[in-house]
Design brief:
This protein has 413 residues and is an alpha/beta fold. The protein has one domain: Spore Coat Polysaccharide Biosynthesis Protein SpsA, Chain A, CATH 3.90.550. The chain is 39% helix and 13% strand. It has helices at 38-45, 66-77, 90-102, 117-130, 150-155, 197-205, 229-232, 245-255, 278-299, 325-339, 343-382, 386-392, and strands spanning 4-12, 30-31, 53-60, 84-88, 135-138, 143-144, 170-176, 214-216, 225-228, 261-270. Strand 3 (53-60), helix 2 and strand 4 (84-88) form a beta-alpha-beta unit.
Length: 413
Amino acid sequence: MAPCVVIPTFWTRRRLRVRDGLLNIFDHPTPIDADGPLPRCLRSLEQVEGLEKVIIVVAATDPAIEYQAEERVREILTDFPDIDALVFGPAELGSLHRRLEQLEFADLIPGIGLTGYGAVRNVGLIAAAVLGCENVVFVDDDQIVKDPQFLHCAEEGLGHEIGDGTRVLAKSGFYTDEAGTYQHHAKPHWADMFWRQDDAFNDALSIVAAPPRIQKSPLAFGGCFALHRDMFCNVSFDPWVVRGEDIDYVINARMHGGDVFLDGEWSLQHAPPRVQSEALQFRQDVYRFVYEHRKLEFAKSQVDLRQVTPEALEPYPGAFIGSSVTWRAVVTAILRGLSHPERGRYFRVAREAVRDAALYARENCQNYFRFQRRWPMLMDRIWNDIALGSLFTGERRVDRTAITGRFPVVRDD
């Protein structure tokens, strides 16, 4: 069976406005009245050999536009009749949550939803399990597939052993720009003297050009990411990491005895829209790295987990999840506030966000471990689930009138 392709797509209101939330913040959501990058992604998939099922998970920055976003995606899909697509929106999520309650997994519902990168990816994994997909390939909606052999390349080595006897159960490709470049070459700003994120990222990505073709990696690219059933049915994404859920998955896999590999011959083109706010993205990174540090520290007390250290994840993300992350974030926020246009947002990061990030990490780092311990049992129960499968394949229809607020008018006589 060909792998399921899962495409998370993120939407926002017509009037693009930068929000101050956490899990409902996405790097570049599409305004509800625009097409955004999704049609371009789907068009590139049309020429991919072996393409079968495509699962499109629709998330929105505001619950008030969830159904509009779903309808917008369905409109876009009318231009691609040859793509066998399942649109997973709030109606399907409601059916899934009710099924989880029936199967006595209601405690996992907070980590399976359309809010937050990790929760959205978990939805994609569950939908794939319901459909009986042995392999899942994630492609983000702002990616362009150039190689007709993309899926064949994704499956090369997946599920098989490499030279040291390790099975490759999770594999990442990498992103390139239009020129085929895969590393960032922007000149570092002086305000980032304690936050050389691009430099560390480039150092980690240097393994692309080094043999062997498939090797263990400290990073992953969620928009070019393949997971074997034996991995995604046993290890979930973390719903409480606010950003960088793909690299966080590397940590999760290692904690549970696995690894994520990088394939130096598997890539696609990344064509992202402009980021809403660099200051807000930095804020999310602060929350993310502080959370990861706390998560690794908490994991030391769990006797059933393999210990993962920041040093083992060098040069990236290891350089940003050690004990120095807090003071480096404060200093960088102040320096950027002195030199960048969004000075108010940067100063708020220094004054409030770093403190709040530590509080968020303390309150939530245990959540993932409770969630993860139940994940394999859920995936075993949900695999090829008949009740949900009939909905996802179209054998039964979801009555959307009762969940979109479009009730008939009732008049008093």
